[in-house]
Amino acid sequence: MLRFLTAGESHGAGLVAILEGIPAGVRLSEALIRQDLARRQTGYGRGGRMKIETDYAVLQSGVRHGETLGSPIAVLIENRDHSTGKGPDGKPWTHTMSKEAVDGEVTPIRRLRPGHADTPGAAKYATQDARDILERSSARESAARVAVGAVCRAFLAPFGVEIRSHVVNIGGVRAPATAPEQVDWERVEASPVRCADDAASEAVVAAIDAARAKGTSLGGVFEVVATGLPIGIGDHIQWDRKLSTALSAAIGSMNAVKGVEFGGGFAEADLPGHEAQDVIKPVEEWERGADGAWARPWPRRTNNAGGLEGGMTTGEPLVLRAAVKPIATMINPLPSVDLATGEVSQAHYERSDITFVPACGVIGEAMTAFALAGAMLDKFGGDRIDETLRNWRAYMATVGPVAASPAHGG
Ligand SMILES: Cc1cc2nc3c(=O)[nH]c(=O)nc-3n(C[C@H](O)[C@H](O)[C@H](O)COP(=O)(O)O)c2cc1C
User: Fold this and answer.
1) In the chain, which stretches have pLDDT less than 70?
2) Which domains does the chain have, with CATH numbers?
3) C-alpha angle 224/177/318, rounded to 5°?
4) How far apart are CA 275 and CA 112, in angstroms?
């Protein structure tokens, strides 16, 4: 079983992640993880925090001479802001977030911020300082998830699985609909808002500027595309073994995500049945790889299912989208109430992004990588990556129609 935990507060000393279940022999380096951490930090509309941090995950365990050992992989990401920065009350974070009891006052956050974990968290944990809640619920934690996702991506690479994301909508400004195989991924990486269309990128940047000028914020939609997946990953036999379950949970667990859809998603509800399903191509149209096995067995004419049927991969690209709500902390704060008195006040303001949808796409890639790596390991097992690859190759030789298999000379 592949699993991970994270620890760490937004302005504490740092973030920790432990990932267990990656086989031995996977090539891994801090530089590789850094690439994804840097991608999470980009995006027009991010706030001051991203200028302070240059996220770097130090591998603490589980790797030797550039390869995983099969033991738990632990990473540590320092919060630079902790040692160098000051909070909104002007006091250093080392004071506000001190592990030890401190002399002198620590300013509590009592002006609850609607849209954050502050209110249910403070009620549930019976605290008079919402910082006890917001420090952990902050999306700073997503840096640890991205580090975990980078490791999962390294595991998936030898199977030819690639995971990418792009922004399709920010604040209602939409990129033109593009089939996943036609997305120009280089353009996405070069775009300040991770959008594949130049005109849409410009319009989105203008929308972010307008939102900043109004003191408000913007949400949006990102799309994740995973290619190279074998058919039959996941399972139909139990609700908690479906890949769709793992992906929904992984993406739905992200801060600010309010909706997840696969393939045609909610638009499928409007289609007649004949247009919604993905017809299978006859075997004469299939392609073989260099080893003689089917390159992509049971291919489809369309991919409305987004690469999932019955909770299993079809072998077509996996396509999922997630909607994220606009950021709750705004320069023009929302009306709120005081945690101690219940009296009217304005929500607490702490340095904040205008939008974060491009970063959400990168976090979505990481969570997708985790869910896919787990499902691949459930199917193929293996203590060392060579064993996993052997099992995968043997399986791929069996998944075509029996009469057309290489063993039958088909
Ligand atoms: C990458 C990323 C960055 C975020 N940055 C901010 C931010 O700067 N300010 C803010 O108020 N919320 C931000 N959020 C959203 C909050 O973390 C989140 O909406 C909030 O904690 C409440 O959780 P919920 O939306 O899941 O209910 C960010 C979320 C993500 C994924």
Assistant:
1) 49-50, 404-410
2) 3-396 (3.60.150.10)
3) 30
4) 48
Give pLDDT tens digits for 41-74. Answer: 988 988 776 677 789 999 999 999 999 999 999 9
DSSP structural state of residue 402: G
Residue 302: partners with Cβ closer than 8 Å, 6 or more residues away = 278, 279
Q: pLDDT tens, 99-120?
A: 999 988 889 999 999 999 999 9
Return the pLDDT at 410: 46
For the CA of 330, the closest atom of ligand 1 is: 11
Atom of ligand 1 nearest to the CA of 325: 25
* Ligand 1 center–CA 408 separation, angstroms: 56
Q: For atom 9 of ligand 1, which residue has the closest CA?
A: 352
Q: Write the CA distances from 2 to 11, 26, 190, 237, 265, integer angstroms.
A: 29, 15, 33, 20, 28
Token pair for residue 284? 């004469």
Global pTM reads 0.96
Distance CA 21, CA 72 (A): 7
| Residues in the ligand 1 pocket, defined by CB under 6 Å | 47, 116-117, 137-139, 142, 254-256, 325, 327-329, 352-353, 356, 359-360, 363
Mutate to test the pocket of ligand 1, among 42, 116, 208, 362 (most ligand atoms within 8 A of CB): 116
What's the rounded Cα separation, in Å, for the pair 375 and 85? 41
Closest atom of ligand 1 to CA, residue 113: 11
Q: Under a CB-based contact definition with an 8 Å cutoff, are residues 2 and 377 in contact?
A: yes
Residues 6 or more apart in contact with residue 368 via CB below 8 angstroms: 149, 163, 224, 226, 247, 250, 251, 318, 320
DSSP label at residue 107: -
Q: How far apart, in whole angstroms, are the C-alpha atoms of residue 120 and residue 374?
A: 32
Cβ atoms within 10 Å of 33's Cβ, excluding its own: 26
